Automatic annotation (TrEMBL), chain A:
Coiled coil: none annotated. InterPro entries: 4Fe4S_Fe-S-bd, DPD_II, FAD/NAD-bd_sf, FAD/NAD-binding_dom, Helical_ferredxn. It comes from Paraflavisolibacter caeni. GO terms for molecular function: iron-sulfur cluster binding; oxidoreductase activity. This is NAD(P)-dependent oxidoreductase.
From TrEMBL, chain B:
This is dihydrouracil dehydrogenase (NAD(+)). It comes from the Bacteria. GO terms for molecular function: dihydropyrimidine dehydrogenase (NAD+) activity; iron-sulfur cluster binding; metal ion binding. Keywords: Iron, Iron-sulfur, Metal-binding, Oxidoreductase. Residues 334-366, 370-400 form the 4Fe-4S ferredoxin-type domain. The gene is preA. Its EC number is 1.3.1.1. PROSITE patterns: 4FE4S_FER_1, 4FE4S_FER_2.
Amino acid sequence: MPIINNRLSDEEYRTNFSDIHPPFETRDAALVEANRCLFCYDAPCTKSCPTGIDVPKFIKQITTDNIKGSAHTILEANIFGAGCSRVCPVEKLCEGACVYNLMEEEPIPIARLQRYATEKAMKEKWQLFDRLPSTGKRVAIVGAGPAGLSCAHVLSRQGVEAVIYEKELKGGGLMTYGVAAYKVTPEFCADEVDYITSLGGIEIKYNKALGRDFTLFDLQQKYDAVFLGIGVGEARQLHIPGEQSEGVVDAIEFIHQLRSNPYAQIPVGDKVAVIGMGMTAIDAATQAKRLGAKEVTLVYRRTKAEMPCTEEELDLAMLDGCNVIWLAAPKEIIGEKGKVNALVCSVMTLGPADASGRRFPVDSGQTFMLEVDMVIKAAGQMPFTELVTNNLLENNGGKIEVTEKTKTNLNGVFAGGDCVNGGKEVVDAVQAGKEAAQAILKYLQSDESHFFQKESTQPTIFEG
Amino acid sequence: MANISANFLGIRSPNPFWLASAPPTDKKVNVLRALEAGWGGVVWKTLGPQIKNVSSRYSAVNYNGSRVMGFNNIELISDRPLEHNLREIEEVIKEFPDRAMIVSLMAENTREKWHELIQQVEDTGAHGLELNFGCPHGMTERGMGAVVGQDTEIARMVVEWVMEKATIPVITKLTPNVHSVVPTGRAAVEAGSNALSLINTIQSITGIDLDTFVPNPYVAGKSVFGGYCGPAVKPIALKMLATISQDEITRKVPVSGIGGISTWKDAAEFMLLGATTVQVCTAVMKHGFRIIEDMCEGLNNWMDEKGFATIYDFIGKTVPALTHWEDLDINYHIVAHINQDKCIHCGLCYIACEDASHQAINLAWGKPYNTYTIKEEECIGCNLCKLICPVDNCITMVEKRKGDEYLNWKEFQKRGLPLNDH
């Protein structure tokens, strides 16, 4: 049972990784749906969007052929509006709140309409925002993901220069490296980053990692303020025997590989087990299947009622032919000559609710064995605890502690997104970046900022 | 099953649905298809002097994604040779002797021309004539169409000429491009017209192309006012019809109602306001002749439900319900009520009342759904919230009379009762 690449033909790869939410083909098709929108007042969809996009307004603007205005309405609230239209779990956000649900009718396809407007804006390269005259202030941002770019965009519009340090070779963060390819292609992610930075006043220095190439202190010395949007990254380990066997991979690493290389080069097993039931687990399972794995089984220690992914995501995995085993916790990975050939799971039962409010799984003592040749671990991601601690940031198990939503314990250092919330949606990170930018702007005008001693004359250990 | 046949001055048709004088009735091939589909009769597209048409001819008003809420045309009367039309009319009558065949006419303004045309049409065996006094474009420049209908004395004179010659029923079709259709209607009836039909199209500009800045429809860089019709004009047509049904002279003759009729419901409304038959065009131009099936079935079912055996049991039934404003009962008062089980929390009632009425709806904030309730003491019973609510019967208007007795404005003033103080 080998883990091999090149399982499919080019045509099969193309089909398997084509857009699962195709855009409206025509203006007429978009208008049919846009015209269904009731234009609610104090709309539930808007209230359910972490970035508060004025959904009825942007949909109304589609109906009046004011696509430029529509895109502006979206992007003003969420500069990642194009990407979010493809990756947001809208069924639990805007579309889930659409009042049509209460009429037992199909909700307005908000994401698809949002894509319609923003895709046009990107294609036409409309620059919808202006920059105020330069204030002479410079802010360093760590991480060119949704939080960092969102923060940078707001700052740049206000005349504050943003310099982003990104450890990868491309911007976009998890949008680029951590989401299923059939939702957003690498090309789209690159285009979106370009579109966001086309405003000007945003510089991205690639291949610069905090802790490796520079310290937070360096940035404090050089800039008027710092925003940390470093995300989370380390996969949660299972701490079970056999975890080091060949064929056991992290979902994040697996998806990162998939997003950075041609599909045909990505090796995948015949029989794959995926541990976890979050969005990343689904993305890993479906993509393993789409790369040509014969059998993919999702293993989750709780039940459907507690799963972190949405129903739609689960359906997607089921439709791709993935199996699901509920109430199963990995106990041991059995290898042969160092290579995985089985996963032993404990059969769980549900106990009382834990801190998250979900019922906690309890080991029943029974076990079963699953023959597999690849195990993908998607049991959650851990914050960069060591990095955060080394840089003297107060944190809670690695999650940076903030007050007033974005202020860290260090004067002039702000943080937001996954590194604070522990890992939420792209749209949450975008909002956190926006909020941090507002806090930074306020800070730059305040007396406090004078205490943040910028010594730009002092040579630094790195030059970006 | 109710009997939906109509007898209009002896012109019989199996149902009250006629096709109006327009493109669907301009030649045998369409008319045969219409009659096969089940239409009760046709008013053949206006015959008159030879004319030439332009391209394009139509434009439309769309609304919220719905096409052709209103429709406009700059087409003239029939542009086919008169003898072709006359021959085909005769042939159709022979094939469908049970259907009404009315022929629309517009002669040049001399007694001789009218008499000549009437003779030619009567020779075909047609059952009635409709005088086109309404076409608002093209023909008016030649002293025909709406210019006749807009001047009561010219209208009277032409009808008199027609009545000297005609031996079959004459219907005078009225133009709405006047401040009231009643004076022309009276003149026509006084001059002997056996019936009236209304309305013809309303002069309009349906829209302007925001790239070329030329109005629609576009003809080589120019446009002209066109005749507006379709669902958008129905309320205006109903009002004009009502004034004809109220007037003591015009109400003596039968009326064929026209203007935006698309369904059996529209037709029933025209008939309730006094029309014996109705004429349809725009709906057919949009959907084809097949709409006649539901028009007949729907009318029939409604009549059965209401216990009407024939159309004469309800024609004109609504006319007495129209009164003068000063006779309305001021003590009648209703207030809105929101059914919370049906409410979908769209907030449309709230913002409409807040911005455009009397701030009578309360908003209790919730995430994501607000709760909306009526402040009864502030509600003036205007209907606005109920009209815009997207859920049927979610908002209902509940009667809360201000007093038991009927009290009108005249009496209210006489008694010196208090006016609003806010």
